[in-house]
């Protein structure tokens, strides 16, 4: 018996759809099956003139597989201090500027199973690392720190930053249909096998002096990660975390400039998601 062209197309579309979602879930179960119950932990530490803080942060780390410290051209002996405190530390010199570029360079270097993002200024408590890792072992792809769930908190956030963060994570939740409680928080952990999927800007690209900071290279990095993880439909568990005040030194963050970069990132990532969906549809038509 013959099958009309329309029916044939519909079957093909259904097959392709089913094939794509089967492919996605096969990839996801393949990832799950290769993830160990006792993962090797790689801690990635972006640091810009944090020598004094590292003296308190590095000795407080639990035993881990490796610490990758990404230096942003510090002039206060950050790298030397890290090596003195932790002779096995892996140090990386980033090629552009910004925390985002530092993290991308660090992620590319890890050899462990799990990546933990830990600020060098003493604001992230190393004692919380096992809680982040436990969330991953329990099934999350991405363990996202939050200061705004019971058990979390901040000794550092200003009223303006709190308000801005609330506005931005509400924007995120509406755009991506998520329910995150904290967007701009730097303490997160994820399985290292996700690094290629995050598709971060090429950390090795060298830009001429005077070039504006590339998108993704600055403090918008946490937003970029959250958007990519949400767009990929990965499993995210929020982990309550207490942000402490930086111990010594000055912040590198400029509330309004960096808030604008976060907002711009939300808009471009939403556009990227829409474009990917359109391409998917075109492929299916
Ligand atoms: N390698 C590198 N690290 C950076 C750069 N900018 C910031 N960092 C590090 O990223 C972490 C977070 O930066 P902070 O300046 O503390 O920003 P913040 O946490 O938003 O602000 P605070 O309220 O001061 O804590 C710290 O460990 C910084 O040293 C950079 O351009 N390169
Ligand atoms: Mg800080």
UniProtKB/TrEMBL annotation:
Residues 42-170 form the Glycosyltransferase 2-like domain. It comes from the Bacteria. Keywords: Transferase. Coiled coil: none annotated. Gene3D superfamilies: Spore Coat Polysaccharide Biosynthesis Protein SpsA, Chain A (3.90.550.10). Belongs to the glycosyltransferase 2 family. This is Glycosyltransferase family 2 protein. It comes from Nocardioides anomalus.
């Amino acid at each position: 018996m013959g099958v009309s062209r329309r029916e044939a197309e519909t079957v093909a579309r259904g097959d392709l759809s089913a094939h794509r979602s089967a492919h996605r879930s096969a990839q996801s179960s393949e990832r799950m099956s290769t993830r160990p119950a006792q993962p090797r932990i790689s801690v990635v530490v972006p640091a810009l003139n944090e020598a004094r803080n590292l003296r308190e942060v590095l000795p407080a780390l639990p035993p881990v597989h490796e610490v990758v410290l990404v230096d942003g051209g510090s002039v206060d002996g950050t790298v030397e201090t890290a090596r003195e405190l932790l002779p096995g530390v892996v140090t990386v010199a980033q090629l552009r500027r910004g925390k985002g570029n530092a993290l991308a360079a660090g992620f590319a270097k890890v050899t462990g199973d799990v990546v933990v993002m830990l600020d060098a200024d003493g604001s992230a408590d190393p004692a919380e690392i096992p809680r982040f890792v436990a969330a991953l072992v329990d099934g999350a792809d991405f363990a996202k720190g939050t200061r705004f769930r019971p058990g979390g908190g901040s000794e550092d956030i200003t009223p303006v930053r709190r308000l801005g963060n609330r506005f931005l994570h509400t924007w995120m939740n509406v755009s991506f249909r998520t329910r995150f409680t904290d967007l701009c928080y730097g303490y997160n952990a994820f399985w290292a096998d996700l690094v290629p999927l995050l598709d971060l800007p090429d950390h090795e690209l060298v830009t001429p002096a005077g070039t504006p900071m590339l998108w993704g290279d600055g403090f918008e990095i946490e937003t970029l990660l959250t958007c990519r993880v949400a767009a990929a439909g990965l499993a995210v568990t929020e982990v309550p975390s207490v942000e402490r005040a930086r111990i010594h030194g000055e912040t590198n963050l400029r509330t309004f400039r960096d808030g604008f970069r976060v907002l711009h990132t939300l808009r471009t990532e939403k556009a990227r998601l829409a474009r990917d969906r359109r391409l998917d549809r075109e492929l299916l038509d």
